Amino acid sequence: MGARAVIFDVGNVLFHWQPRRLYERLIGDDRALDAFLRDVVTDAWHFQHDAGRDFADTSAELIAQYPHYADMIALWGPRFSETVEPAVSGMPELVRELDAAGVPLFGITNFSHEFWPPFRAREAELFDRFRDIVVSGDEKLVKPDPAIYALALKRFGLEGPEAIFVDDRADNIAAARAFGIDGVLFTDAPALRTKLIEAGLLR
């Protein structure tokens, strides 16, 4: 059974995720910016959103810890889409090429159930080409939990060997491979294109 579909991660595969892009517009001092990103709006804090927690709750807790940053913390939710840009070079074109070739496209992304809808709407031209996208915040399951891969395969109507999964994290790739999915650790669009040609999905 050969691969016939591609499952994409979103952050740092299709679009760069860079919280600095939002806050560098708001905090002029580089050292203060570095400290804010390192100590306040940390990856661990944001991971709660990917796992399904509401921003109203997480922001209230963080503001209680860092009240002098209240205004900056409050912007994380309404302006989150500004942290997910720009598109990774060559990837929108590759998605469009796969779609034009009739390859079924799917996604599994660690993303907040609140932040995903406005971001998806902003990038509708690209995401309308996907048949389905499993969003961790909706399911309260996050990669690399095996349960999110099991759910995705069931929803997508795929057996593991029928899919190529593209992600930028080795632990997510390892979890996918446990289901027989051909996991590809993303580096850049040209390398991925070579893999897709080898798999017979592109010419």
Topology record:
Blueprint: E1 5-8, E2 15-17, H1 19-23, H2 30-39, H3 43-50, H4 55-65, H5 70-75, E3 84-87, H6 91-100, E4 105-109, H7 116-122, H8 124-127, E5 132-135, H9 136-139, H10 146-156, E6 163-167, H11 170-177, E7 182-185, H12 189-198
Parallel strand pairs: 1-4, 1-6, 4-5, 6-7
Antiparallel strand pairs: 2-3
Mean pLDDT across the residues is: 97
Largest sheet: 5 strands, parallel
Rg over alpha carbons: 18 Å
Cross-sheet strand order for the largest sheet? 5-4-1-6-7
- Overall outline: elongated
Count the DSSP helices.
Answer: 12
Q: Which structural class do you get from the secondary structure elements?
A: alpha/beta
Proportion of residues in extended strands: 5-15%
Order of helices and strands: EEHHHHHEHEHHEHHEHEH
Structure, briefly:
By secondary structure, the chain is an alpha/beta fold.
Overview of this protein structure:
The protein has helices at residues 19-23, 30-39, 43-50, 55-65, 70-75, 91-100, 116-122, 124-127, 136-139, 146-156, 170-177, 189-198; strands spanning 5-8, 15-17, 84-87, 105-109, 132-135, 163-167, 182-185. The chain has 203 residues and is an alpha/beta fold. The strands form two sheets. A five-stranded parallel sheet has the order 5-4-1-6-7, with helices on both faces. A two-stranded antiparallel ribbon has the order 2-3. The chain is elongated, with a radius of gyration of 18 Å.
